[in-house]
Amino acid sequence: MEVMGDIEQFDVLEEKIDSLLSLVENLKNENRSLSERVQIQEEKIADLSRQVEALKSGRDKAKQKILQLLEKLEQVELE
Questions:
Q1: Which residues in the chain come in under a pLDDT of 50?
Q2: Which pTM value belongs to this model?
Q3: How many angstroms separate the CA atoms of 20 and 33, rounded?
Q4: Three-state secondary structure of the chain
Q5: How far apart are CA 21 and CA 26, in angstroms?
C-alpha cells in the first residue's frame, strides 16, 4: 500500500512541475512580447524627439528671419 502512496505523491509532484514549466513558458512569451512592445515605443519616442528638434530648428530659423526683417523695417523708417 505504501508504494501506491509514493506513486501518487510523485504524480502530484509531476503535475506541479508541469504546471510550473507551463507558467515559465507563458512568462517567457509574455516577456518577449513586452520587450518587442518596449522596442517599438522607444523607436516612436526617438522619432518624435527628432521631429521636435526639427520643429525647434525651423522655429528658430523663422524667428531669426523675422528679426532680420524687423531690422530692415527699422532702417527704412530711419531713412
A1: none
A2: 0.65
A3: 20
A4: CHHHHHHHHHHHHHHHHHHHHHHHHHHHHHHHHHHHHHHHHHHHHHHHHHHHHHHHHHHHHHHHHHHHHHHHHHHHHHC
A5: 9
